[in-house]
Amino acid sequence: MKLYQYPSKSAEKRVKDTIERGLGFSKQDYETVEAYLEDVKTRGDEALVEYTNQFDSKKVTIDSLKVTQKEFEIALKSVDASFLKALDRSVNQIECFHSKQKENSWIDTPRNGVMVGQLVKPVGTAGIYAPGAKGGKTPLVSSVLMGGIPAKIAGVSSINLMTPPMKNGEINPHILAAAQRIGITSVFKAGSAWAIGALAYGTQTVPKADVIVGPGNIYVTLAKKIVAGIVGIDMIAGPSEILIIADKDANPEFLAADLLSQAEHDVMASSILVTDSQSLARDTAAALENQIEKLPRKNIAKQSIERFGAIMLVPDIETGIELSNRLAPEHLELIVQEPFDYIDLIQNAGALFIGSYTPEPMGDYIAGPNHVLPTAGTARFSSALSVDHFTKKTSLIHYSKAAFIKEADDVILLAETEGLTAHANCVKIRK
């Protein structure tokens, strides 16, 4: 893992390369995804099943597109009790966290005769996407929970899950167990861009969504980007990333493991250690070289570390935090003595993990906060998936006649200043 003195020209280039790596789409990717979406929009279930047969399972038909109650029952019987126990802990803690995000409608009477307020209402239908991963062999159960639970807490009445089937035409039972545990009973056997198209436009079987959330490959991400505006989406997610700020007392074995937890995701993933300790930098690099050889996904991790990994040696922790704020990482670990003394300095991060025993995977699965986080520097202006993504807010305004008369002339003046005489006339005619 390359070591850089920060600030320096070489370090600056590495920072710039990391910031700008983003999520690139080729013209061919864009045209391919557009074609999938248009086909699903036009032909509905027929196109959805055709693509599912071509890429995932030849056994899915229009009649078997939606998971049946019997399939749910079989799935629950086939998963281990230990999995269900872990699932229950995860669900309970994610529900507890997200329940605190729910906003209530409110009204206020700021002036005599004037009432203003805000109605907070859930969207009608939410679409959740959960990747199948390796043909369903490594089901992303956590994606079901992180998408479905905030939708449920928001009060969404119709929640529909799209996930690709296994070769045998079934959904991995762990996915179905998770869906049933949080009250999702509408699960459909389709993935990739065509699944997003089905949610965006609706088909004969799949209800049209108001909001679509959930992670996926480049086709899923690009499809969400294209349909954004037709429906609401959570975010345009780029490659995964982690930045660790650590001092001399941190454990280099821990740091190496945490850096690799993101490097194994994708060759575009970014793993950066920022430290003021030369010895910690050296020891972490050595630990990483040792650990990476033991990973099943070591080839991916090696490419990720080579292209976008770095150890930044800074003069002090405050400088390290300034660098972190520039990068606005998806995951930020703060592993220093007295970490809470530095929290106010953190301006930009998707999620902040504090202390040696809070590695990023605790947030992925069980801590409670959502793991769908802004990437590629977008933590500068956006936030984690939350209950807010599944609600909309309507402003309330009421004037009595006396209150209207008191403020009417100011409205007329402002409207006429903007050249909007019809606006002004709405007020004049009432006077």
Question: Can you give a write-up of this model?
Answer:
This protein is α/β, with parallel strands linked by helices. It folds into 3 domains: 3-23 and 238-368, 3-Layer(aba) Sandwich (Rossmann fold); 27-233, Nitrogenase molybdenum iron protein domain (Rossmann fold); 401-428, no CATH class. Helix content is 45%, strand content 17%. The strands form 3 sheets. The protein has a 6-stranded parallel sheet with strand order 1-11-10-9-12-13, sandwiched between helices. Helix 10 links the parallel strand 9 and strand 10. The protein is globular. It starts with a strand and ends with a helix.
Short description:
By secondary structure, the protein is of the alpha/beta class. The chain folds into three domains: 3-23 and 238-368, Nitrogenase molybdenum iron protein domain (Rossmann fold); 27-233, Nitrogenase molybdenum iron protein domain (Rossmann fold, 3-Layer(aba) Sandwich); 401-428, no CATH class. 45% of the residues lie in helices and 17% in strands.
Low-confidence stretches: none
What percentage of amino acids are in beta strands?
15-25%
CATH C-level label of the largest domain: Alpha Beta
* Number of beta-strand segments: 14
Looking at the structure, the CATH topology of the largest domain is: Rossmann fold
Q: For the record, what is the CATH homologous superfamily label of the largest domain?
A: Nitrogenase molybdenum iron protein domain
Query: Tell me, what's the shape?
Result: globular
Helix content: 40-55%
SSE topology string: EHHHHHEEEHEHEHEHEEHEHHEHEEHEHH
- How large is the radius of gyration? 25 Å
The number of helices is 16
Distance between the termini: 74 Å
In spatial order, strands of the major sheet run 1-11-10-9-12-13
Number of domains: 3
The main sheet comes to: 6 strands, parallel
SS-derived structural category: alpha/beta
Name the CATH architecture of the largest domain.
Answer: 3-Layer(aba) Sandwich
